[in-house]
Design a protein that fits this description.
Helix content is 71%, strand content 0%. The chain is built from 5 helices and no strands. The radius of gyration is 16 Å and the shape is elongated. The mean pLDDT is 88.
């Protein structure tokens, strides 16, 4: 997907969470490790919830911010979500799954921070700050829940 505006960026983020939710759910049925299956199921559900949260930003955001161009700051696709999964999650250990999922979330957080520092209008900065806050909070929640699963 080519990201040109903040609206495109939000749609891309929503699609990334959707792709990740589907991938994790699919792999959860194929993993041979019970703990990994539990983690993959939890992460898939969480990513599906994030998809809905991100979709809400398109509906609530200021149209001025949504229509602001970001292509000066990005290539065609800001992050390759497939990079997070060099091999299927079903073949990964619990630690490897966490590392791959957190790597992808951290890339999104870094992207939002980068764009926030370059946003020229207040509406765009506010939108990016809200997106950044949401991603950081949800990544912390994922980390806490993942640690609970690992502790089992």
């Amino acid at each position: 997907m080519k990201v040109e505006t903040f609206s495109d960026l939000i749609v891309w983020t929503r699609e990334m969470h959707h792709w990740l939710a589907e991938c994790l759910a699919h792999c959860s049925t194929q993993s041979e490790q019970e703990l990994a299956r539990m983690l993959l199921t939890y992460l898939a559900d969480h990513e599906a919830a994030l998809e809905k949260i991100v979709d809400g930003f398109v509906k609530r955001a200021d149209p001025k911010a949504l229509n602001t161009w970001v292509y000066d700051y990005l290539g065609n696709e800001p992050i390759d979500p497939h990079r997070a999964c060099d091999r299927p999650f079903a073949q990964m250990s619990v630690d490897e799954i966490c590392e791959a999922v957190f790597d992808l979330h951290n890339q999104v957080i870094d992207l939002y921070r980068y764009l926030h520092g370059r946003a020229e209008i207040p509406e765009a900065r506010e939108l990016l700050q809200a997106l950044l806050d949401m991603e950081e909070h949800e990544t912390m929640r994922l980390a806490q829940q993942s640690n609970r699963v690992r502790g089992m």
